[in-house]
Design a protein that fits this description.
By secondary structure, this protein is α/β, with parallel strands linked by helices. A hairpin with an 8-residue loop joins strand 2 (40-44) and strand 3 (53-56). The longest helix is centred in the middle third of the chain and has 19 residues, at 102-120. The protein is 40% helix and 9% strand. The chain has two domains: 20-86 and 182-289, Nucleotidyltransferase, domain 5 (2-Layer Sandwich); 91-176, no CATH class. The protein has 13 helices and six strands. The radius of gyration is 19 Å and the shape is globular. Strands 3-2-1-4-6-5 form a six-stranded mixed β-sheet, sandwiched between helices.
Length: 298
């Protein structure tokens, strides 16, 4: 893949709020067609005057990574939100994989993830005939990272799923295991991955883990009518109305994936000043597990 963000100067500049925001609704689909159908990217860049907000599908995971690297070359002062878990519970990283850092775990997961999904490790469940391990039934918290179990303001009906679930309704494990190699690619290209790395806006692009429910709320996203209702509400928000066009509204109303990407990008932009204040996680479980980025305040 081409493109690399320029190296940071010896003395880091003062961080400021990002100039561009991209939210990607991810997919762990194996087939190229499935990836192109389900991966949506919403890109809000006010400097791009004619179409400051775009919403597109049609890219594979590899093509999405290249698109993000190209965007960072244009705009290093960029934040990207990716909709998959950036790691696994700390006990699994340490005890099952023998890793003491997220980067070491990513290397193991990138190499062995496909075999894990096929049954090489007993913890992964959800494929036909593979039930949830008894250890997770007895101690459900073992199947989740701390960030997955943390209360999310304004959300009552759903919480993030376990990254060990690789099949069935709402499964996120497949997207995670097929997304981790993309984190490696972006990191090598100069992106900082939060909270594992020290953020360096505006000189280096930042990647954060997002959970679209934080931005869509408790609406029934699978319902086109509900999506349309939520989009009409957005049009009442002056800050959102500035960016939205009829074609974007139609795309988001027609696709749950597009809906998630669009609302995530707008929500991230609304709270963009908060990205300048993010710091690296302290040593401990969070440095291994990562954390979902959730905006603070209204």
């Amino acid at each position: 893949m081409r493109g690399r963000v320029a190296a940071l100067p010896a003395k880091q500049k003062m961080r400021r709020e990002p100039a561009r925001m991209i939210a990607v609704d991810w997919s762990g689909a194996e087939a190229t067609s499935g990836q192109k159908w389900h991966i949506w990217g919403a890109d809000l860049w006010p400097k791009r005057q004619k179409r400051p907000l775009t919403l597109q599908a049609g890219r594979t995971r590899e093509e999405t990574a290249q698109w993000l690297m190209d965007a960072a070359v244009e705009t290093p002062n960029l934040v990207v939100g990716l909709d998959f878990a950036f790691s696994f519970p700390a006990w699994f990283v340490r005890e099952e994989c023998g890793c003491s850092s997220a980067a070491d775990f990513w290397s193991v997961a990138a190499t062995e993830g496909e075999s894990w999904m096929r049954g090489a490790k007993p913890w992964f469940w959800g494929r036909p005939g593979v039930k949830k391990p008894g250890a997770f039934v007895e101690r459900p918290e073992r199947g989740f990272r701390r960030t997955d179990r943390a209360p999310l303001a304004g959300i009552r009906r759903t919480q993030p799923k376990s990254p060990f679930q690789v099949g069935g309704a709402g499964a996120v494990g497949t997207g995670t295991l097929r997304g981790i190699p993309v984190l490696q690619v972006l990191r090598r290209a100069g992106f900082r991955i939060w909270p594992f790395d020290v953020p360096a806006l505006p000189d280096a692009p930042l990647v954060v883990e997002i959970y679209p429910r934080v931005f869509t709320g408790d609406c029934t996203k699978s319902s086109a009518a509900e999506r349309s209702r939520k989009l009409k509400e957005l049009m009442q928000d002056e800050a959102c109305r500035e960016w939205l066009r009829e074609d974007l509204l139609a795309e988001a109303a027609a696709s749950e994936d597009a809906f998630d990407a669009l609302l995530s990008a707008l929500g991230m932009w609304r709270h963009r000043e908060q990205f300048a204040h993010l710091t690296q996680a302290a040593e401990g479980d969070e440095r291994l597990e990562g954390r979902i980025w959730v905006p603070q305040g209204d």
